[in-house]
């Protein structure tokens, strides 16, 4: 699905990613953890094609294709989805209208017929149930005045709508209350299949109780410095990052 | 950064869609302006003596006036003697109905996306089409006639309804009002006249399309809308012009007279040729639009979507004379490349408990300058009046300018005025968010801009809102910065 080799990226003069290696196979869930500022969101942005970041080395192969060659919109159309840590507001554009545009542009790219209003609404109703989101929220301007939790839930709703192959969830759990966390995690689990993969960026073990990862990686100073199974998350929760930082310093 | 430049480049190289002209045979006045030209125009239009006298009076006034210099626009001095003031497509006789109209003309309108025949058959929108200086076709006349509604060309109104024209012409915008209004009063060539009788709700949109076709020609149309007590009408104007190297002058006057309990909705989608990316050519659009809410509880709403013209000078205004009368102004003004717009509104509160609402959305791209100029004047006797103004500016790129000039004058203590203003830029992160969902950059900009302008676009009649949305997207495609 995704193969990242020695990926390096910078913004301005600041080098942020210092040689990331990561293999994600279909059906797998990978968790990425790591201290603030270690480069987790940057990795997500680079994969999604944010142009502010300059890739200075390495390669990313996605389903046999060079992902870095694609424009951001084509990456999305190829099935890459990023649930943003900080979703932006678009005044005057409802989530419904936004999603209709997105779904139809993606369908066009894939050579499918665009959805008319009725079938779109049908699809929407189905996905709304999945993440238990209220239509009144979807009628409002996208993310404008949404609470932190509503924004995150809206991201997962969009993910459900677009049915991506590779989803990157950047701290989707932050700002969610316990119930919302369960609902959102439930939604993600329902969307899981042997054909799609998920990368979950999080600071908390709690989310990983609901979305159980196959692998856990620790990102530190722009590098994956430790990988392990789901028990690594528990260890981090108990011990913090200092021991890993020490290990890195010794090495 | 380089991507922005590339996009701006792409945007500026986009061509004006309506930039063709049709080889119509024309009957024109010689260049220049003097009393003989005024007489020539009046004669060509078979006008009665009183009309000629009115024009001559306006001409004499204009001769003594000077062009206003206060708008925030710059342009080379206009040589008023170098303009042709009357040009009409040659037709053997005035067409009685659509079937008699020159097929070339019909083609012109079909290119504009307004098929008169289609309009007539399908959409229930009555259309009056003015090309260069003359009205060429009015549809739906009979149906409207049954309700006592008059919707015809101005020239026809002068001949057929002189008592109404004499009574209302210049009653809202006097010929002495300003330089361009005086000029228009002297040489106006045609336009539309609407009269809605007492208690009648006009069952369809009334719509006029203006097109300048001939070279070196000014267009000076007049629109007069009279709404009798308790009546309602929604009226729309659209316009285009071919691409030409020289600037062309357009100086129109619109007057709306609203009586007790009447409601007039006036919408316009202005798409005159804006000039090329270096600023060559384009229409100089100097327009005076004013509504008089003469009767109690009368209401006038102006909605404008301004995308064209090299220079726009335009302040649709409401004089709120009747008690409890209200005025609204909804505007989206887009400028791109070298365009300059100085537009806004005036709300003059005279009657008690009068209300006005101003929503102005400016969008500037390229090297354009976009100014909002608004005046809210609440007079002493206009007790309990209210105004709300919202002026937003959206910038694309860093070479354009947005300016706001609000003038607020409140002469009593029981009235309330609220003014809000914002300036924003289309964010990279907004565009990236859209792209991440599979939406390409151009569609993303269109989506964001339409969202920004939504409150105004919502005011337009449905079919025109769609047209306006497309026009906005077209004007701004790719203009991110
Ligand atoms: N636009 C930018 N300009 C300058 N520095 C940036 C920019 N974006 C990110 N950085 C820097 O890159 C580093 C990595 O940031 P990133 O957002 O990827 O961290 P993170 O691991 O997601 O942190 P958190 O856990 O707090 O979300 C930080 O030091 C941050 O300040
Ligand atoms: Mg982050």
In short:
Chain A is an alpha/beta fold and 251 residues long. Chain A has helices at 40-48, 72-77, 95-109, 117-131, 135-139, 148-162, 178-191, 205-210, 231-239, 242-250, and strands spanning 2-11, 14-24, 29-33, 54-62, 65-66, 80-83, 90-94, 141-142, 166-170, 197-201, 215-220, 223-228.
Describe the structure in your own words.
The complex is a heterodimer of chains A (251) and B (481). Chain A has 251 residues and is an alpha/beta fold. Chain A contains 10 helices and 12 strands. A 6-stranded mixed β-sheet of chain A has the order 6-9-10-3-11-12, with helices on both faces. In chain A, strands 2-1-4-5 form a 4-stranded antiparallel β-sheet, with helices on one face. In chain A, helix 3 runs parallel beside helix 6 (148-162) and helix 6 (148-162) runs parallel beside helix 7. The longest helix of chain A has 15 residues, at 95-109. The model of chain A has no long low-confidence stretch (mean pLDDT 93). Chain B has 481 residues and is α/β, with parallel strands linked by helices. Helix content of chain B is 25%, strand content 35%. In chain B, strands 5, 6, 8, 10, 11, 13, 15, 16, 18, 20 and 22 form an 11-stranded mixed β-sheet that branches. In chain B, strands 4-3-7-9-12-14-17-19-21-23 form a 10-stranded mixed β-sheet. In chain B, strands 1-2 form a two-stranded antiparallel sheet. At the A-B interface, helix 2, strand 7 and helix 3 of A face helix 10 and helix 11 of B. Magnesium ion binds at residues 40-41, 85, 170-171 of chain A.
């Amino acid at each position: 699905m995704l193969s990242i080799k020695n990926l390096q990226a910078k913004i301005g003069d600041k080098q942020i990613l210092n040689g990331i290696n990561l293999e994600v196979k279909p059906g797998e869930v990978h968790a990425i953890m790591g201290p603030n500022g270690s480069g987790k969101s940057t990795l997500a942005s680079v994969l999604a094609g944010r142009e502010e970041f300059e890739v200075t080395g390495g390669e990313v192969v996605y389903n046999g294709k060079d992902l870095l060659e694609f424009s951001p919109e084509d990456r999305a159309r190829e099935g890459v989805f990023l649930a943003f840590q900080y979703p932006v507001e678009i005044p005057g554009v409802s989530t419904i209208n936004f999603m209709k545009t997105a779904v139809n542009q993606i369908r066009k790219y894939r050579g499918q017929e665009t959805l008319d209003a009725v079938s779109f609404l049908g699809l929407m109703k189905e996905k709304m149930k999945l993440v238990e989101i209220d239509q009144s929220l979807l009628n409002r301007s996208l993310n404008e005045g949404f609470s932190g939790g509503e924004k995150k839930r809206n991201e997962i709703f969009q993910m459900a709508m677009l049915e991506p192959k590779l989803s990157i969830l950047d701290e989707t759990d932050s700002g969610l209350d316990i119930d919302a966390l369960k609902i959102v995690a439930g939604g993600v689990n329902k969307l899981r299949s042997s054909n799609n993969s998920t990368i979950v960026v999080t600071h908390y073990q709690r989310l990983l109780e609901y979305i159980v990862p196959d692998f856990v990686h620790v990102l530190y100073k722009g590098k994956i410095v430790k990988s392990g199974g789901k028990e690594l998350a528990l260890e981090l929760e108990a011990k913090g990052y200092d021991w890993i930082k020490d290990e890195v310093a010794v090495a | 950064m380089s991507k922005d430049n590339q996009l701006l480049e792409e945007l500026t190289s986009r061509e004006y869609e309506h930039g063709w002209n049709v080889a119509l045979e024309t009957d024109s006045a010689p260049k220049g302006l003097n009393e003989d030209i005024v007489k020539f125009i009046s004669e060509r239009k078979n006008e009665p003596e009183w009309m000629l006298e009115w024009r001559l009076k306006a001409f004499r006034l204009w001769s003594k006036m000077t062009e206003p210099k206060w708008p925030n626009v710059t342009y080379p001095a206009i040589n008023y003697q170098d303009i042709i003031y009357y040009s009409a497509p040659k037709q053997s006789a005035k067409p009685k109905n659509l079937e008699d109209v020159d097929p070339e003309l019909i083609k012109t309108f079909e290119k504009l996306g307004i098929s008169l025949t289609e309009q007539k058959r399908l959409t229930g929108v009555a259309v009056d089409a003015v090309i260069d200086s003359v009205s060429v076709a009015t549809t739906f006349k009979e149906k409207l006639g049954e309700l006592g509604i008059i919707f015809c060309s101005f020239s026809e109104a002068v001949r057929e309804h002189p008592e109404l024209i004499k009574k209302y012409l210049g009653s809202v915008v006097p010929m002495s009002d300003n330089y361009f209004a005086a000029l228009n009063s002297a040489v106006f060539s045609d336009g539309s006249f609407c009269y809605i009788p007492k208690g009648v709700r006009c069952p369809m949109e009334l719509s006029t399309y203006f097109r300048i076709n001939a070279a070196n020609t000014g267009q000076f149309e007049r629109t007069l809308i009279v709404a009798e007590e308790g009546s309602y009408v929604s009226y729309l104007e659209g316009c285009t012009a071919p691409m030409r190297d020289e600037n062309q002058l357009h100086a129109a006057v619109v007057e709306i007279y609203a009586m007790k309990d009447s409601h007039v909705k006036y919408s316009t989608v202005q798409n005159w040729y804006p000039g090329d990316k270096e600023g060559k050519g384009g229409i100089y659009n100097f327009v005076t639009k004013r509504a008089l809410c003469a009767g109690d509880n009368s209401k006038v709403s102006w909605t404008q979507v301004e995308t064209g013209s090299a220079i726009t000078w335009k302040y649709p205004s409401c004089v709120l004379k009747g008690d409890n009368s209200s005025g609204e102004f909804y505007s989206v003004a887009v400028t791109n490349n070298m365009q300059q717009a100085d537009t806004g509104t005036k709300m003059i509160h005279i009657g008690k408990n009068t209300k006005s609402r101003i929503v102005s959305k400016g969008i500037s791209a390229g090297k354009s300058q976009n100014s909002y100029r608004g005046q809210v004047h609440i007079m002493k006797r206009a007790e309990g009046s209210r105004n709300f103004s919202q002026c937003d500016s959206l910038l694309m790129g860093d070479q354009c300018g947005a300016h706001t000039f609000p003038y607020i004058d409140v002469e009593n203590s029981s009235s309330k005025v609220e003014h809000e203003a914002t300036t924003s830029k289309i964010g990279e992160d907004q565009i990236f968010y859209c792209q991440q969902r599979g939406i390409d950059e151009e569609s993303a900009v269109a989506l964001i801009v339409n969202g920004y302008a939504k409150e105004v676009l919502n005011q337009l009649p449905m079919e025109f809102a769609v047209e306006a949305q497309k026009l906005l997207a077209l004007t701004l495609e790719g203009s991110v910065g």
